[in-house]
Write a structure and sequence with these properties.
Radius of gyration of chain A: 22 Å
CATH topology of the largest domain in chain A: L-amino peptidase D-ALA esterase/amidase
CATH architecture of the largest domain in chain A: 4-Layer Sandwich
Oligomer: homodimer
Subunit structure (chains A, B): Heterotetramer of two alpha and two beta chains.
Protein name (chains A, B): Arginine biosynthesis bifunctional protein ArgJ
Largest sheet of chain A: 7 strands, mixed
Number of strands of chain A: 18
GO biological process, one term (chains A, B): ornithine biosynthetic process
GO cellular component, one term (chains A, B): cytoplasm
Shape of chain A: globular
Helix content of chain A: 25-40%
Strand order of the largest sheet of chain A: 11-18-13-17-14-15-16
Order of helices and strands of chain A: EEEHEHEHHEEEEEHEEHEHHHEEEHEEH
GO molecular function, one term (chains A, B): L-glutamate N-acetyltransferase activity
Number of helices of chain A: 11
Amino acid sequence: MPVNLLAPVAADLHPIAGVRIGVAEAGVRKANRKDLTVFLLDEGASVGGVFTQNRFCAAPVQISREHLASGQPIRAMVINTGNANAGTGADGLVRARATCIALARQLNVAPEQILPFSTGVIMEPLPHDRIEAGLPAAIADAQPGHWARAAEGIMTTDTLPKAFSAQVQIAGATVSITGISKGAGMIRPNMATMLGFMATDACVHPSVMQQLARELADGSFNRVTIDGDTSTNDSFVVVATNKAAHAPITTLASAEGQALKAAMLGVAQKLAQAIVRDGEGATKFITVRVEGGKTGDECRQVAYAIAHSPLVKTAFYASDPNLGRILAAVGYAGIADLDQTGIDLYLDDVHVAVKGGRNAAYREEDGQRVMKQSEITVRVLLGRGDAVDTVWTCDFSHEYVTINADYRS
Amino acid sequence: MPVNLLAPVAADLHPIAGVRIGVAEAGVRKANRKDLTVFLLDEGASVGGVFTQNRFCAAPVQISREHLASGQPIRAMVINTGNANAGTGADGLVRARATCIALARQLNVAPEQILPFSTGVIMEPLPHDRIEAGLPAAIADAQPGHWARAAEGIMTTDTLPKAFSAQVQIAGATVSITGISKGAGMIRPNMATMLGFMATDACVHPSVMQQLARELADGSFNRVTIDGDTSTNDSFVVVATNKAAHAPITTLASAEGQALKAAMLGVAQKLAQAIVRDGEGATKFITVRVEGGKTGDECRQVAYAIAHSPLVKTAFYASDPNLGRILAAVGYAGIADLDQTGIDLYLDDVHVAVKGGRNAAYREEDGQRVMKQSEITVRVLLGRGDAVDTVWTCDFSHEYVTINADYRS
């Protein structure tokens, strides 16, 4: 049961001019499954992308990085589920390239203009022949209004599709933003990958797209954690189709750049948070906000120490306001000169610790009340400076162990 | 059920000349519990100790560090269970000092000659009056043969006491080594602390003791992990009573120093591994050995990434030879220039991955056979150099969640 997450309503998702999406059943791993999705981009789209830092990154990640770096305009993305094409060596690269070549031929573009993505079982050969055979049906299905269908098409063990949309005024023009994501653990039982795709019809110069993708990912997908495991296939791609009626954004520092980024970040955060809400065995959605650090980095470090601690996560599951576990995680986060007597802790509005010790006014039942909620904010005040950072996570339940201890077959 | 661990037999533990141990029931938290242990050291003992790196370290850790640094010869250690005296601020320091003063008076030594240790609930005031009241009984109980009794006296939620002993020849003299440890998670539900105490009658110059303690901890207690959480109270103390009939060891680099350290390391590793074997919900004991790194540090980093991954640990619990999870953990361990095509993986004798891909000769049933064992060695070959490091851990079971999600009361 996802935490406060509903399936998207197709009519609520704005189509993006210049993007058509098609979904097909290619039988990659199982029959009768929507397992192949193509994004077809009109000429003139600007594209940026960021990828997993895992050194065991999958073949499609390596190819997508290479194609983005080639500087050739991207014209399509192809996503298969059922097989991650990870841990597959040189043969995996050949198969990922073959998929790009097949789609490029049908679209009459160069293979370097295609970005491939795969998600599913690891260390099995990609059945690229079946993917190729499925491409015509996916292309024939392509429509601007197929975002909800795509959100379903990229699901693996997600319990719900994830899609969000927004509009914003840029220099007098109404600009639309729509995105989809998938993922439920960084790695599901032998399934890999968190994927995010966003598009806008805003006009953004290609030179700005990598920075935009990186900053959006940093404020959203790079701020969530379920179990601390980093997938081999994580990818996040941002497309600007340049169809809207406003002058191109050439720097994110401009008023238009800021406005667009803020609106896109809102959608990206919802997409990233949806992955946590649908996290393996999640029963609660936790916001960990760390304030008063010397730098944003140290705030984030402390937030992740809390968000990754199995002891803190099981305490959330148990609705146990276990201050000691949270404070201990702050203590081992790796800030060498941290002074424990400067630290305050809040659970939502409840002030539980003052200057490193229990707040005399704190009553256990108040902590208990907050811990029973399905949405909880942990606020840590480090008392060292003005920096702030936030991470989103979920609790750690019996269901997590059950899901991940199930044998793969 | 601990993994292949038995309670110590008192008769198998060598007494250490110059060390007497007494245990009493002080009613720190509950009545009728052996919760107070004193180690009384003859004059002339050399003592070294290492402590938690957690910035939220407990009051007794701060005092023990201070007393060791004062250079005054240590004459006693006092350990209470039931209360960790952690997260207790300035008041906690006062209470820990009061305990030292009380014991020092009874022994007619200075308070700086006492090392205090506490383990139990966090953020509750230490009932130092009850501890003081219990000291005479603990002192009256003191005997050289009480190591097994001490192993019981320092237990909190451990399911078994932990004690090991060895003898070694140093320059023609038979030297004895005995140690005890406690701990079952880095932090139990609101219980804290991994503790280790070792003593030998060997002759070791005081100037060598800190280095000896650090090197022993580095090769044992600093190589184990259950859930990645670092306690506020972890302490490891080494005593050499200088009673044996050999010339004092003034450097660990000497043949005698090496022989003593090797023998002590054997005991320290058993003590540390016993904590993993008795880990919360553990059903398997896992040795993660990483070879072929450029440095020992990077081998250890990879070993910890594997040992901390909830996905890897649940796969062990499920006896699932899930190669993808182990390789993915290697990939995200943080070695920036790691080449995935150089990596081999073994489960015991079974060669599962070759050069980053599945070994063609690997059969799933062979991996399965190893994963079903109660003791498993994961061997990762990085193919980058000659360094090696090893970490010991346990699996991650439903029982872990049950133990840690139980409400504290």
